[in-house]
Automatic annotation (TrEMBL):
This is Cytochrome c. One of its GO terms (molecular function) is heme binding. SMART domains: PA14. Residues 257-266 have a biased composition (Basic and acidic residues). Keywords: Heme, Iron, Metal-binding, Signal. Transmembrane segments: none annotated. Residues 254-273 are annotated as: Disordered. Residues 173-257, 270-353, 369-556, 575-672 form the Cytochrome c domain. It comes from Blastopirellula marina. Residues 1-24 form the signal peptide. Gene3D superfamilies: Cytochrome c-like domain, TolB, C-terminal domain, Toxin - Anthrax Protective Antigen,domain 1. PANTHER family: LARGE, MULTIFUNCTIONAL SECRETED PROTEIN, LARGE, MULTIFUNCTIONAL SECRETED PROTEIN-RELATED.
Amino acid sequence: MRLLAPAIALALSALTWIAQPALAQFDEDFGRGLIATMRGTDGSQCVRLDPTISFVWGKTAPDPRISDGKFSARWDGLLLSRTPGEYTIHAHVCGKARVILEGEIVLDVDTAKPQWVSGKPLSMKFDWHPFQVDFAKTQPDAELRLFWSGPDFPLEPIPAEYFYHDIDNTIEQPFERGHELIAGFRCVACHTMQGEVAALPAPSLANLDGNISEPWLRDWLGSHIQENASDSLRRMPHFDLSQDDVEAVTEYLLSESKPRPKEKSLPPKGSAASGQNLVLTLGCTACHKLGDLGTAEVMGGPELTKIAEKRPQGYFQTWLKDPAKLNPAHRMPVYDLNAKERDDISQFLATLSPANAKARTPIRAFDERKAKRGREVVAANRCNACHQMPGEAKFAPGQAVPPLGPGNLWRDACLDQPVAATGQPGYQLSEADRDAIKTYIRQRSRATHQADAKADAAWILTKNNCLSCHPRGVGIGLSEVAKQVSDAHGNLTSLLPAMVPPSLNSVGDKLHDDALLAAIRRSEPTHRPWLKVRMPKFNLSQEEQAALVDYFVAQDRIPANAPDMVKVPHTDGLAATVAGARLVTTDGFGCTSCHQVGQMVPPKAPLNAKGPDLSMLGKRIREPWFYRWVHDPARIVPRMEMPSVKLPVQGVLDNNIDTQLAAVWHVLNTPDFTPPKPDPVRIVRQNGLRRAASRPVVLTDVMKFGLKQTLIKPLLVGLPNRNNVLYDLESAALTQWWVGDVARQRSEGKTWHWEPGGRGLLKETSTGPEIMLKDSNGKLLKPVRDGQFFTRFQEIDYEGDRLAWTHELKFGETDPVTIELQQMLSPEWTDQDQPVNSFRRVLTFANIPAGVQLGLQLPRQTVTGPLQLDASIMETFRFAAGDVRIDVDKSPGVSVDQQGVVWLSGDTAATLSLTFHLDLPGEILQPPAQQVPVRQSEAVPLDIIPGWSATRLPITTEMMPIAMDWQPSGALIAASLKGRLWKLTDTDGDGLEDTYQQFGDEYAAPYGLKAHAKYVDVANKYALLRLWDEDGDGQIERVTTLADGWGHTDDYHDWVVGLPQDEEGNYYLAVPCQQDDRSMEAAKLRGTVLKLIPDSSNPANQTFRIEELTAGHRFPMGIARNKAGELFVTDNQGNWNPFNELNHVVPGLRYGFINKVDRAPGFAPVETPPSIAIPHPWTRSVNGICFLETPAQERDRLGYDLYGPWEGDLIGCEYDTRRLVRMSIEKVGDVIQGAVYPLTLDPPKDAEKGLLGPVSCAVAPDGDVYIGNIRDAGWGGGNNVGAFTRMRPNSVHLPVGIDEVTLTPNGFQIRFTAQIDGALGGLASNYTVASYTRESTPAYGGDDKQRRLETVSSVQLSPDRLVATITLESPMREGFVYEIFLDDEVAGQGQTLWPKEAHYTVRKTLAP
């Protein structure tokens, strides 16, 4: 931390008053904004900090301190460029302007009218570049707005987060503080001041009786004797009143107040707890302080901590509904609250007082003599200058007070202590605030302005505290206060994304003028009804409203005919309507995943991902802004969760992204447009043909029936005769039966699920277990849950066209009885092998205790009516309803009752057989159903990594590969996000897999697999399964459960990820977190890394026990183990995770995320920071990982390590930005830490030439690296497609670039892949290093903290020019990320480096 010189005082002479750079104490090297120096032609001057340069001054002065007329201005500072490449500065200017960047004039112009001017392009690296702008007003109107375009973005206003100045040159700004104090204290109510607007209204005192506590009023008036009299919240001055005067003023104010309304004796209404939540989430804390929460600024509202000591309970209800009834001069904006909300808030506010200090408003007789004296005291102290007074008395003008101006040789006067002898009030201000007021008065009074100057919009925002709520530019608005609220009130943590209002970044470019005006007026319905925070209605004049519109437009809007803009395509007609209707759904960009469109509402979108209704958005939103936004939302609102839309949907409008977005705009602005329900992602069906290869289909992922019923652990069996049977493994009951297609898979919002492929034939099926037990004493027992579910699922067996599954049921809480149940389903056929709408269900029970009866509750209702026992049928027990019937075999020990319960008596084993039949002809689909839609990808060579070859495999894009492994035969087994497993083979010997066959049925997000010779182990949502293919024909014969027990729901994110295996046969799983409301059982083991330990070495009868290794993981979407036995998982940024992460798994440790069920007072576990904190939004998410370790057989063949200098590093898959990253790790003491680097080049503009969306990776037995790519409609503008990419280094000798960064005691050692330039590589100016940290908060992502530009004091090259050791001037900081950027010159003149940046996480420093 630097120790800087004290601030330089402002000189008072006319010649030298201008502020000199004042030094302050900062942790950062840079201050935000540019230092602006302005001069008027009459000698008026000012120095200030400007966050941006975007001004349309017109005829007005650029600052209150500058006189009207011509002026000149200079801005000095630094411009940050993050992405190396070519940048162009553009200006929309009227006047004379010059821009100097890196000492070079890039723009020099003098215009007579506003027009666009573009500077010459300049190549820039990552750095803070010296930046200077000069402007002179040469025309009646003046304007200067700066824009830029860069290597990875089109023209945009230069955002505030890219402007800085050297902290050593920063300035204090007492003028701005003085302005706020002058206004907040209403100085011009008594004093005159040149150019100052009228004083803000003070609270009316005309309605105090019954609305203010009499004891509190006395204390307030006599507050000069209190210890806290200098409280900065107080905007009324202190008066040195005697106790008699206090009593007299109190008597006057209450006695002449308007009569209080007759009090109604009603019981209190409302919930104080609900009211507290409303106060904490509505946005009240942006203006009010409540205990340790909220803000206490001079332009804000009064503190609420003890408000019930001041106000009676009846006051709050009226105040919240219509504050003007109580205070016609109020400044508080009005919230649109319903009656219950007002009741709740009133009830809560009424609790805010110390014990026995409730407001007291007694009804009593008043003393007229005291009241008369009180009027005199009020008049003498000029109270009426600020306040509306009660009664009819007219106050004569008091003694004249001097004007406020530079000619006054006044002392501190009312800024300090009150003086009773002269009646002078005192604000008891700090010395800094007194100086700020003096500075404002002196500097403001030196400039001359027209009397009819326009309303100052920036001041309107300040005085109404707008930017204390809304984020804008580098201002964070309510974010920090909302975080404090959620920290203090854990029950509100999950609501944090709804507690901060929308950013105002680019709002003037976003909205049409009339829409902007309507938003300011609050004259339209809310567009984000899910937000807890709300914008109240402000009492703004029409002039103020218009000024705000003009301000935002001038600041934000890109004028027409701008160069280098995102091209706005135009399309209409039938093609746009048809294509656009599909593109907004999950068949296209997935807009409906987060946004409502027409009547289509997104299902269960998380709070941080919800978006406003897009219907007819063109009425509010400007079309040019729409295209800017969808191309890259995070450039407008940093850390915005909405993905960028840069990839076209294949097969639509010539695969042109711009035309597709134009079609989206077209349909969204079509009246009464509601998107069609998107096509199913897939339809699973049987064709009804009886063949030797006919076999059942099994689905086990989430099933939904309409809007009401969801099964999270279904077992859906599609029989070859097109009869489909749904058994619910959660409730242990047959749930439904239908004829037709098996199921349709849908992606809605951010969820995937199946829906029935036909109309169900059963109604009112059991909501609980269908099996019951009657013990030897006649006591009826029903199954009890074994953890989250009633069943413990064991095995599936495929037997030709039949299917059997086995599970356990447990009866009784004490001394439980566990019975094993196998169920067999068989299709029925005619003698001619034609399908019959019928199936056999055989239940075989084992481990039945002696003397026990088992009961099966049959369905009671069907679509054709209630099932009734038909006593006329003698061969079976028949239950029939029209065309539907169930026949129960009359076997020994089988009986039925009138309630439809089939009873079975037996010994330790017994069997029950039933036939379900629909009396309608079976159906056959001709031709046979196509199992895989043809949407083939061609083999495409990709140029994505220098020194590597890469090819997209010629495999259907229907697969969305999320896990991969190879059998010993060399066959690639891949799992798709859609649920299936596939076997991929190379048939022509070119090394590229080109054919595929289905290997497994439909599983639940199989994010991990391990392939063996005769079986494949698969990790999916609910269990680790073993899929047996013992005969090697590519078809599964048996599925067994190896391990289960972690909780899960229908939440899309409830995956488990795997599946590394160690030498002892143990498996490792990463289980994402729990953030929603659910049972403890459903939250079990969420957010953990698990070790699965086999209980046997024989694969045929193995099960695995679970051992929890670590906890505190958010979304660990990648897990990998290296040859040294070290296990790592990734984690994705979000709430509690300010970075994406690579975490070293050490048993017993806990990382940074907290499950919702654990968020309780007192729960504060020790957290382990990540080994590598991967910057966000440099990466949006890091998912699958794998180690670049040469397989043993390939090393034996080659005789060397395939990956050369990168051997042992990790690859990470970055889905959103379509890139791969590389990570290197090193051990410092007992801590593992390291660096992350870009691996692939930035995605090319031609989407076909880049990666689709990496999410998984694996190393093949021959050393080839395979990348699984997807585009998921719920997360990133894609229509649920996928691709495989195969990559391989061309040589161990890579092009020159960073190989590895390791730590030294005072800097870093950078190893290169090839020799660097001996001279240029040793220049410190070619190395840029910065460091920063972030804090874990409940908010998404996080701001950089304590950012510092490091000084590279020296660079030492090794003799072989493969290593550069850089020494930093400042000590190394633990817990910080160091960004290291190298110039291409390091490689040599005219050469390039790749990679040329690294991000190193220093968890532990090295001793010198």
